Model the fold of this input.
Amino acid sequence: TVRFDWELASANTRTDYCTVIEFKNGVLNQAAQRGIIAQNSTTTKTATIRSVNPSNAFCNFTGIKSISARFGRPDEFFNNVSLTDSVTVTASQVTALATSANAYYEVLEFASGSPVNGIMKSVQRCTITIAAGATSGTNTINKVNQANTLLIFNGINDANTASILDSTWAGVSWNASDGITLKATRNTSDASFSCIVEVAVVEFVSSA
Done:
């Protein structure tokens, strides 16, 4: 059973989707770690996890639950999460609010090896900034094979103080077929506010 949480019940029906990936025994170094970071009166908050090797591990953002009724303020509840060291997951938002958001995450660590357990080749972390007045932004990583690489969206840090969601939500994709450049895109530019998208890039070993 997969569970989805809302803070308040609604008369409207909502459909949420998820993908569940099961790894065979021995692929992961330890059981997946999952948790919730409560962003109360802070812009950055951390959670301590069991120690992992950051070169073999990645953080997966599994959503936010807004505690505030002020849904018109993305800066107060949009969060991104990242694995910032071997024992720390960090959640960030732009503006602190006493009752803002809970950020959900999970951390997976692959077993050691070269490549890692014959499954995973590399893990990279990347932030992409969409500047004020722009609809997209790019950043580069070390070259990977796109056909074997998973992009993991780890949330948005957005400075927007108004309920204009078409200029706050953003998606992540490859900018080209070079295996180097990532692109974040939002539907509408905002002359006043930028947003930052957090991404984990996991490259798997080729089956060839």
Remarks:
- The longest strand covers residues 120-130.
- The helical segments are 74-77.
- The chain has one helix and twelve strands.
